[in-house]
């Protein structure tokens, strides 16, 4: 038996999933998307049309990674840069946890073109995708009694990471009749002195709307408490 235990002793281990994390993801948009795709005749590759017609490939627009489909190709410029970096043998070591300096400088220069001030590499933190970025953000915001304001509906990852960091997730409504704008009265009702952040995804996920400058200005005023 594993670890010298007798049969039946494994039942004493209390390995159970985090119920709060399971709850935060069970009603996600992606779960409903998977349910719909699973009921297609041939969900990913081909969908049979009316009798007598040829099959056509199906591209699920809810899939967030277009490179999963052969009709979408990465630009050769990016491929060549990656190959050149590998062959240079300059980047075979562990990179800084904040990202390689040349990459952070490039991001700072790019973002500075639309800002009234100049960013530097020290203002940029590169992560291994959005999941790690959300994890780091929640860990930084965590403090005793802290809460974050999340839109409803929202991508479930934010709630899951808030729970892992010991932060209370509070939800403000989005108004579908107003193009999914923020319910400002709702924000003022649920925010308090322990609110450390408010999430605004723009363009929004999963609603797909884009907040206007005027509406974002109103949100900023309502959150200035």
Topology:
Blueprint: H1 19-25, H2 29-38, E1 46-47, E2 56-57, H3 76-88, H4 101-112, H5 130-141, E3 147-152, H6 157-164, E4 168-175, E5 181-182, H7 184-190, E6 195-198, H8 213-222
Parallel strand pairs: 3-4, 3-6
Antiparallel strand pairs: 1-2, 4-5
H/E series: HHEEHHHEHEEHEH
Give the name of the CATH architecture of the domain at 128-225.
3-Layer(aba) Sandwich
End-to-end gap:
60 Å
CA-atom Rg in angstroms: 23 Å
Fraction of residues in β-strands: 5-15%
Q: CATH topology of the domain at 128-225, anyone? A: Aspartate Aminotransferase, domain 2
- State the fourth-level CATH superfamily of the domain at 128-225: Type I PLP-dependent aspartate aminotransferase-like (Major domain)
Which descriptor suits the 3D outline? globular
Protein name: Aminotransferase class I/classII large domain-containing protein
Pfam families: Aminotran_1_2
GO molecular function: pyridoxal phosphate binding
Domain Aminotransferase class I/classII large: 57-219
